[in-house]
Input
Amino acid sequence: MSEIERFDVVVVGSGPGGYVCAIRAAQLGLKTACVEKDATLGGTCLNVGCIPSKALLESSERYAAARHSLAEHGVKVSEVGFDLDVMHERRKRIVAQLTGGVELLFKKNKITRLSGMGRIASGEGGLHRVVVTGADGGERVVETSAVVIATGSVPSSLRGVTIDHQRIVDSTGALELPKVPEHLVLIGAGVIGLELGSVWARLGAKVTVLEYLERILPGVDGEIARAAERTLKAQGLDFVLGARVTGAEVQGERVVVRWLDKSEAAHEIVGDRVLVAVGRRPFTAGLGLEDVGVALDERGRVAIDDAFQTNVAGIFAIGDVTRGAMLAHKAEDEGIAVAEILAGGHGHVNYDAIPSIVYTHPEIAGVGRTEEELGEAGVPFVKGRFKYGPNGRALALGESEGMVKMLAHAETDRILGCHIIGARAGDLIAEVAVAMEFGASSEDLARSCHAHPTLSEVVREAALDCARRALHK
Ligand code: FAD
Ligand code: NAD
Output
């Protein structure tokens, strides 16, 4: 019998958590393998998540801009149309470029790629085994002292609504619709719903969003979410809040979606496509966790301690499969941290300074705590606000709608959170995340020189406004 190959670390899953963990581990000199069941590397994020959604958001936004905002600049476009096939081809090209890029990075860093479904099994002498079953059914077994579970998440299902991948789709299906729906009924006004709803609304679909809560974008600062709702409504998205979807039925080319309002009165709405976007759940099927005794928490996530280790020594977990925000950069940072811990260092993730962005138009971005969270926790805070309106760059861009809200501790002035709705919010939030990482006060940020004319001046003015010193208010 051939000898079982041994690695210092075997990462299961090649999403942003897994592939970044593998690269960092290899950089630190660990002999590293990464197991992936799908044909391409990069996980949800690169294949069917962040990247393809942003490609379509950008294409549809260009089309919307050509129709609605170029005239303001004096640019005349006589006939504006779009070719959906070209948009899809572009999306696929970008995905292929990035997933191929990860493959090259694996080669460059001498990471062994193991293709197939990974299952963890007990080894001898405190080692773990990972059994990899390839598409042809063949098995390869490797041995390691450290397994990192990075198996990510999959869309949550909704009782009474069967995804048929034709009329009723999840986010993956909604990225690949071959034609623009006439009426897209969206279940869930979360991040996926609003991003993909924006894509299809811009391309001409009527979009109705059914949301269980009385607000959109749970988790986003309330004032910002209300502003987003107003803006998206103006762009043609219809919201039905307080609507609990209980079922959907395909009838030929139409789908009847049933929902209950707060008083339990029953309603129906009919569309030609339905997108179910009610959250994602951790994916652990087939990993063999029961066999090796790895515990899950009450929500089916792999339970870990502060050093990312499960209840079984030598088995770690990162990213969507474990607690915390389901974000690519959170998964990446955990991947880096766990690799550094495995190499004998001190990996660490600051969960108070993880930005999140919704790529609607305008963008919505936040970092740190919301006003509601600070209120609930009884933390005394001051609020600085500044609108995009008076900012020269915003006016030049034709993007004068938006605001930045800075939240700082009332006594120490330390920045506790920042929430933005407005053009390029996703880029602006980076400076606040760095400031928070360094424990900056709103005064620190306000006293830092910001180039003129830039949108970053709005962030500075919001910081100044914490001390009621905004200059252009
Ligand atoms: P994943 O990316 O889910 O990767 C897990 C990988 O593990 C997969 O490739 C899977 O095939 C593999 N795998 C699972 N089990 C096994 C096994 N037993 N053996 C071998 N391989 C296995 N986040 C952002 O931060 N920004 C965004 O703009 C953004 N947009 C998104 C848009 C959409 C439409 C969706 C669906 C998600 C989006 N996300 C975004 C979320 C982001 O994709 C996830 O947070 C991120 O991919 C999680 O990374 P991960 O490494 O934990 O897992
Ligand atoms: P989400 O948790 O953001 O939103 C789901 C929404 O569905 C919630 O508002 C919830 O109240 C609603 N809902 C649940 N059950 C319902 C029912 N029966 N009827 C009506 N509404 C119902 O989830 P999502 O939008 O599916 O996204 C999943 C995850 O993917 C997010 O948590 C996010 O972390 C990640 N993601 C991130 C980005 C980004 O960073 N830009 C983009 C897309 C996805």
